[in-house]
Amino acid sequence: MARGVNVMICMKQENSFYLSGFNPIIYSHPVVAILPAKGDPVILVHALRDDHAHESAWVRDIRLYGAWGVKKTMGPDWLAALAAILGELGVADGTIGIEDDFLPLSRVRQFEAKFPKASFEDASDVIRRARLIKEPYEVECARIAARLADEGITAAISALAAGGDERVVSVAGMSAMNRLWTTEYPDVEVCDFGSLEGGVHNGLWCWCLSGERVLINADNPKSCKPQSGEIAVLFAWAVCNGVHAENERTVAIGALNDERRCAYDTILEVRERTQGLMKPGTAVRDFYLAVKEEYARLGYAPYTPGRIGHGMGLGAHEAPSLEAKSDVVLEPNIIMTFEPNLKIPEWGGIQHSDTVLITEDGCEFLTRTENGYIQV
User: Fold this and answer.
1) 320 and 326 in contact (C-beta within 8 Å)?
2) Which domains does the chain have, with CATH numbers?
3) Is it the case that residue 189 has pLDDT exceeding 80?
4) What's the pLDDT tens digit per position in 223-239?
5) Which of 33, 93, 152, 282 is deepest in the core (most CB within 10 A)?
6) Bridge partners of 359?
7) What does the alpha-carbon distance between residue 243 and residue 265 come to, in Å, rounded to a whole number?
8) How far apart, in Å, are the Cα atoms of 61 and each of 17, 40, 127?
9) Residue 275 and residue 262: Cα distance in Å, rounded?
10) Residue 59 neighbours by CB under 8 Å, 6+ apart
């Protein structure tokens, strides 16, 4: 393992799932994935989660803590159980890899107090790099998630055309995704990763924002109805067995004035002129700068976004961030979004977002909804 790390401890929801295959949906009791440099991985879960973990995890060594009925556990709390496991593995006094980019200071102090002879290394980049390149199974899950997102956007566009308000449109999109999941994907899980205080049983989300509300990007849809001449943006996020995809589309409500139509056409042109750079060997930084040049050429330099996309996988927004400071070079089986956009403070903005797979010789758009000019 990198930098002489003897064992890696992962508690971030996506990372513990990546290393074990177990998502309890709600993380009110910590899930601890333990990856020793030598030997098989171990997962430590609360006794309440025992049956669920045995049903879904691919890790076979499942240890329990806490108290729940007649379950036999390693002790009342996860930290004492973790100490026993690391002692058993012979690494309690070694170098322990932890997630500096996720763990709160209080958790780090708990580790330091419990393992006073150990040294700690940030192992965040190790798992981040591993998650960057998708396995074939993850790619297939992304394809399903993308199809679910496409279904949501198609239904949402139809609801907009029928005169629906933001909420009606959003519900139409989510209903369509759930119907497709129910009828065609009986073995797929669409739960997402929850938190210490809440769970996400269904990650098939769609929402609509219109007019100046487009600038908000993520908000609960309201009962306001998009007006003629306005822009509405539709967002669909979907998940298949933990792997995400997104599809976002801008819709013109009736004819747009010259300023808004010009902005819309600009984004379409930027996409058309730069999407060929999405291929192995392209540095993300160079890709971003090429897009930035197009904004300047078309007269929109002041509105250049800080990034033009992001990685997609177990996280709906994960590495790499497609921005100037990135040091990532595109490789086959990276999945990311492609979303050059414009945000115009006076009236809203334009944004199409596709989920894209980098292939051996180029890229494949996993989301396939019409991505040109859309008017209802």
Assistant:
1) yes
2) 2-131 (3.40.350.10), 133-365 (3.90.230.10)
3) yes
4) 999 999 999 999 999 99
5) 152
6) none
7) 32
8) 14, 8, 20
9) 20
10) 19, 20, 21, 22, 33, 40, 41, 42, 43
